């Protein structure tokens, strides 16, 4: 069997690309606290959204309301409602405002 030849995945950066990379690196270091604070706030919002979905799911089940009925009342697609009430963080991440 012949040996496979692999292409080089990392190419050398041009002077312009290196300069841009350095600018972005310096900016991110200078704004690290602000970026971290924004990430923390977003995480708090997502945790609150997950908690709200758990409460809504418990209420729906306690009252015996079907997912279809809830979808009709809220105007949210049944599939999206199912994903949201399922508590998947992936759904919250994709749909977080």
Structure description:
This protein has five helices and no strands. The protein is an all-alpha fold.
Short recap of the structure:
The protein is built from five helices and no strands. With 97 residues, the protein is mainly alpha-helical.
Q: Strands, helices and their partners?
A:
Blueprint: H1 15-30, H2 32-63, H3 67-74, H4 78-85, H5 89-95
Q: Tell the overall outline.
A: elongated
Sheet with most strands: none
Average pLDDT metric: 83
Order of helices and strands: HHHHH
Number of strands: 0
User: How many alpha or pi helices?
Assistant: 5
Percent strand equals under 5%
Q: How far is the first residue's CA from the last residue's CA? A: 53 Å
State the helical fraction: over 70%
Poorly predicted runs:
none
Rg to the nearest angstrom? 23 Å
> Which structural category do the helix and sheet elements fall into?
mainly alpha
Give descriptors for this structure.
97 residues; mainly alpha; 5 helices; 73% helix; elongated
């Amino acid at each position: 069997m012949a040996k496979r030849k692999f292409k080089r995945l990392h190419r050398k950066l041009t002077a312009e690309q290196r300069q841009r990379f350095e600018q972005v690196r310096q900016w991110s270091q200078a704004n690290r606290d602000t970026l971290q604070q924004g990430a923390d706030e977003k995480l708090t919002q997502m945790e609150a959204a997950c908690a709200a979905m758990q409460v809504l799911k418990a209420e729906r089940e306690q009252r015996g309301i079907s997912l279809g009925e809830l979808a009709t009342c809220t105007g949210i697609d049944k599939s999206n409602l199912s994903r949201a009430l399922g508590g998947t963080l992936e759904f919250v991440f994709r749909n977080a405002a």
